[in-house]
Structure formats: C-alpha cells, structure tokens
C-alpha cells in the first residue's frame, strides 16, 4: 500500500467536491468479511472537539449491518477513473453478489478497519454516534416527501477521524 498518513488539518481538498461530486465508499468489517457502499451525502468538520465525518446510510443497505456492528469504518475517495466501480458499489447489494470483486477493487487493512488500495484518500473513523433520522423530526416536510417516498430512512453516523491516508 503506497499511502502516507497526514493530519486532518493537512487535507487540502474541497469536501463538497469529494463527497458530492467524487462520491465515496463507506466500508466496514474485516479483510475477509466486509461490505461497502457508495455515498454522496456526508460532511466533515469538528464535533466534540475532534475532526469528524458524518455519513448517512439507509435502513435497507447491507453495509449498515457492518457499520452498526463494527467500532470503526472508513471513507474512501477515488479518482474519476473508478467512477464505474463506484457506480456498481452503489447499485448492487453485497448480500447477493461479490460486488467488491466485480468492481475490481482490492481490500486492504486501514488502521482498525478496511478500505481499498485503489483509493486516493482513506479516512479511518471511530464510530462515535448513530441516530435514526425519522419523519417526525423534519422541519421541512417536503424533504420527507422528496427523499423518502419509500420510507427507507437514513441513520446518521458520526465518526471521529483516527487517521487520513493519501497517495
């Protein structure tokens, strides 16, 4: 693995681009038993005095079982050449197929979790908080109608950043 560790304050990337345009893979588990999913919703900042990541996973996603079970998860960001792989990881369930293999990705250990050798940035996160995002708390009811017509709500996860690895 040709990564080097940097401090969170040294990450000089536009997080709106990283998350919203480049997308990311949320991954949890072990090298022999993990799952991943593509996400384009999230945030980075300071929470409880620590550099942190916030990500959102729908109830139906197989990756949610792994993130719920594990103490750590990772966020991996890729170059544009991996767009097809990220698209596959966002549309195929790991319950039914080996989507990681199909996507041509290589699982590697990353701190206390796993990520992918092909990533350009890996953020290792310690799970600090999880909260179901139900319809009762929407202040803008149109968001419930627009994003949750199927009632497959998200759980919000906040992870403190344990390390950032970049190529």
Properties at a glance:
167 residues; alpha+beta; Pnp Oxidase, Chain A; 8-stranded antiparallel sheet; two-stranded antiparallel sheet
Task: Describe the overall structure.
This protein has 167 residues and is α+β, with helices and mostly antiparallel strands. It has a single domain, classed as Electron Transport, Fmn-binding Protein, Chain A (Pnp Oxidase, Chain A, Roll), CATH 2.30.110.10. Helices cover 21% and strands 41% of the residues. The protein contains 5 helices and 10 strands; from the N terminus they run E-H-E-E-E-E-H-E-H-H-E-E-E-H-E. The protein has helices spanning 15-21, 62-69, 83-91, 99-102, 141-147; strands at 4-6, 24-29, 34-39, 42-47, 50-58, 72-77, 107-110, 113-116, 121-132, 154-166. Strands 1, 2, 3, 4, 5, 6, 9 and 10 form an 8-stranded antiparallel beta sheet that branches. Strands 7-8 form a two-stranded antiparallel ribbon. Strand 7 and strand 8 form a beta hairpin. The termini are close together.
């Amino acid at each position: 693995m040709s990564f080097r560790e940097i401090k969170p304050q040294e990450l000089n990337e536009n997080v709106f681009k990283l998350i919203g345009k480049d997308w990311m893979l949320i991954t949890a588990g072990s090298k022999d038993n993990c799952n991943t999913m593509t996400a384009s919703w999230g945030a980075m900042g300071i929470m409880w005095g620590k550099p942190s990541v916030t990500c959102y996973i729908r109830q139906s996603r197989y990756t949610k079982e792994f993130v719920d079970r594990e103490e750590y998860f990772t966020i991996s960001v890729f170059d544009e050449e991996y767009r097809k792989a990220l698209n596959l990881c966002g549309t195929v369930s790991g319950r039914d197929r080996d989507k990681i293999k199909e996507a041509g990705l290589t699982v590697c250990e990353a701190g206390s979790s796993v990520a992918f050798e092909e990533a350009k940035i890996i953020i290792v996160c310690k799970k600090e908080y999880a909260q179901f995002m139900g319809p009762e708390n929407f202040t803008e009811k149109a968001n419930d109608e627009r994003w949750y017509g199927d009632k497959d709500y998200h759980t919000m996860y906040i992870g403190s950043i344990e390390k950032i690895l970049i190529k």
